[in-house]
Amino acid sequence: MFLTVTLNAALDVTYRVPRLRAHESHRITDVTERPGGKGLNVARVLAALGHPVTVTGFVGGPTGAHVRALLAAGAGPVTDALVDVAGNTRRTIAVVDGSTGDTTQLNEAGPEVTAAEWAAFLDTYGTLLAGGGAGEGTVAGGGAGAGEGAGGGRGGAPVRAVALCGSLPPGVPVGAYAELVRAAHAAGVPVLLDTSGEPLRRGVAARPGLVKPNAAELAQLTGSTEPLRAADDARRRGAHAVAASLGADGLLAVTADGTWRAAPPRHVPGNPTGAGDSAVAGLLSGLAEGLDWPARLARAVALSAATVAAPVAGEFDAATYAETLPRIEITSGRGAAREGA
User: Which of 12, 194, 233, 277 is catalytic?
Assistant: First the structure.
């Protein structure tokens, strides 16, 4: 199974309006709600692809209870190992302009997490990692230190990899992801890290198998706006592999096994919420199925495009995925990656 961590879970609410205009009242034509936060989005896509996944992190209050109910009602093999907190889980609001397909996003900060609640989460996380069983493969495609085996989840199911995703809620230590990376290493579980800012900088120093920043997050980490140079710098800082999201231009991967760029065949209009999370699910599922890096990247980019095309945040459109996957353009080598970026 996979384990995803969402320390700042959310209730994702999507409003659709005929046309979004500033300073005006709007009649909402459609409302949808989904469990949200990056790790929960990753988990739902993994489950839709047929992979068992356990989710952990924090939820609390009436909104948190609603998130758990929606998660339980969803399709696919998702196990709830979320930890309760006293504060109310945040909401994220996506307003979709029906005339253009563009989306305006509003994100709450999240509940305050106490020291006792953080300690309870660490106990849960350690139990999930150390449940027993041997795993397979590494997130980083075999890079040193990425972890060859895997610990176990509930019921002894082996953990293939852990995905540490998203922002930190108030009260959680800024070095939280570095601590979680080290704990996964100790349990022999490979790690994918997808966050930003200081939590990313500290997490990279703990040597995760793979980091998946977007171009802006990578530039903030390294000081370089050239993605290939920035990815090289991120690897020198500790990441064994880097898969950088380039928005509509796809993904750039710099690994110990080589460098590739994967690009979609066309621009897909729609709601980008969760597109990067679907890319993470594509990378992890490709790992589980033994795909090589080009095939993993193609799947990640196709899922990302299909998520943009979906009418609801954090879902993916199956028809768009099937149509896009065989048309992903893969280029290899550092010259091709630099030119494409």
Answer: 277
